Amino acid sequence: MDLELLSELSVPNHTKILLLVIDGLGGVPNESGRSELEQADIQHLDRLAQESMCGLTVPVAPGVTPGSGPGHLALFGYDPLRYTVGRGVLEALGIDFDLQPQDLAARGNFCTVDNAGRITDRRAGRIATDRTVPLCEMLRTIGLPGVQVFVEPVRDHRFLLVLRGEGLSDRLTETDPQREGVTPLPVRATAPEAEPTAKLLNEFVSQAAKLLASHEPANMLTLRGLAKRPPMPSMPEACKLRAAAIAAYPMYRGLAKLVGMTVLPTGATFADELQTLKEHWQEFDFFFIHFKKADAAGEDGDFQAKMRALEEVDGSIDDLHALQPEVMMVAGDHSTPAVVAGHSWHPVPFLLHARKFVRLDDTEGFNERACAHGTLGTFPAKEALSLAMAHAGRLTKFGA
Predict the structure, then answer these.
(1) What value does the mean pLDDT take over residues 314-333?
(2) Could you give the CA distance from residue 223 to residue 365 in angstroms, rounded to a whole number?
């Protein structure tokens, strides 16, 4: 199933679909032999799984570790191998930056390096946004020949870098080595026409390193997802849905905006997101609501913190279910096992609860082991939306 086919088969309806994405949901066992989901007290999710169809989703392809961008795009019905987008673009859209077609955007991380320039903390201790703001103001003093330079705070240790000028290319590598104990990488061109752009970015990093040297823990930076905004078909138009997104973190608002969803203003906590959902429930047909903490804990390698995050979101499941959507999905964009301390390639637990047309399975709880035996089996995440639309009565018959 792809968006073109969904566009042909979709029919308007008054039914509602709710997608809860628990970022970094999946895990693997620690020394106890059980994963975070298996050890956490998630009685509401476990009960919902017993009343649902369950399975495991593959965000991109077997064995491929996905970023958050492709992981979410798949859940929105896009083939992540066909529709790609750089993280810099998502951060720009997420903070409502006026990104122009010729602009090159990068997602920046403040990080910590030692005296030898080796990264000791890729996220500078996850410094608060109010500490990032003055650092961005300082970086705005950097000038580069022939281009305008924009530096904007995003959230916590994250910032946005945009270069604006003629002839910029996004055929570039990142500077984040994705591990600690090594030095940041130089930006390299992957095509000859990108050589001048790589030179500009390396000059920015060089000047930034001098400015940040005395500002521990944020005494260096890395750049990721260097990209221009790609053309993207509208998910609401293709699926004939009024679609809304509720997310506290800018990147996920950017993803939703990229695919044509209405991004609803909300607060900084999941409780704020839930309140926003309730306030706008009558206005839309499809809601995407995002929970971040499980991913952050997994990336930090904190098994107990990830368990607590899962228990936190579990406490809101009954409130979500009480809204009585025709279809409610609980999914993850990827797995972030604490024992890996990062994203991984492992399939992600998934459940679909529907008020009609459901073939219930024998799943006893919401975890990796139980969902592997669910009715849905292991399937591509990009097919989740079509399953939801079918159970919500929003797809017509294919063929004669």
Answers:
(1) 97
(2) 40
- What range defines the domain where residue 203 resides? 90-227
SS3 330: strand
pLDDT value, residue 400:
77
2 contacts 269 by C-beta, under 8 angstroms = no
Verify that 122 and 161 share a domain, yes or no: yes
Residues 175 and 270 in one domain: no
Name the helix (H) or strand (E) containing 69.
Answer: helix 68-75
Closest residue by Cα to residue 108 from 255, 17, 220, 186:
220
CATH of the domain at 94: 3.30.70
- Residues facing 162 on adjacent strands: 105, 150
Confidence grade of residue 3 (pLDDT, cut at 50, 70, 90): confident
- How far, in Å, CA of 261 to CA of 241, rounded? 9
The span from the CA of 58 to the CA of 324, in Å, is 27
Alpha carbons 261 and 268: distance in angstroms, whole number: 20
Q: What is the pLDDT of residues 104-149, one digit of tens each?
A: 999 999 999 999 999 999 999 999 999 999 999 999 999 999 999 9
